[in-house]
């Protein structure tokens, strides 16, 4: 993901952000999240509170995204990634 905050920069200058939301069970309880990118420390602190309170993916989906920051992606994530995608990405093919 490339943060919209960098919209006016060239592609080479944009800082990439990688994130993952970890959900379990039929109600998709959020049990963790990972983020690598600028400002990750500040963004994950607030999400930690939601996780400790038992938030579900539906709870995350119902939140209005903070725009234009990378944290908006955590409340708009839609596509689960397969094991094959992760493997291909690690090999540099994704």
Topology:
Elements: E1 18-24, E2 29-36, H1 40-52, H2 57-61, H3 83-90
Antiparallel strand pairs: 1-2
Mean pLDDT across residues: 78
| Straight-line N-to-C gap | 13 Å
Share of residues in strands: 15-25%
Structural class: alpha+beta
Oligomer: single chain
Q: In order across it, which strands form the biggest sheet?
A: 1-2
Rg estimate, integer Å: 14 Å
User: Looking at the structure, what is the overall shape?
Assistant: globular
The sequence of SSEs as H and E is EEHHH
Could you walk me through the main structural features you see in this protein, from its secondary elements to its overall organization?
- This protein has 94 residues and is α+β, with helices and mostly antiparallel strands.
- Helix content is 28%, strand content 16%.
- It has 3 helices and 2 strands; from the N terminus they run ββααα.
- The model has no long low-confidence stretch (mean pLDDT 78).
Summed up, what is this model?
The chain is an alpha+beta fold and 94 residues long.
What descriptors fit this protein?
two-stranded antiparallel ribbon; single chain; globular; alpha+beta; 94 residues; 28% helix; 3 helices
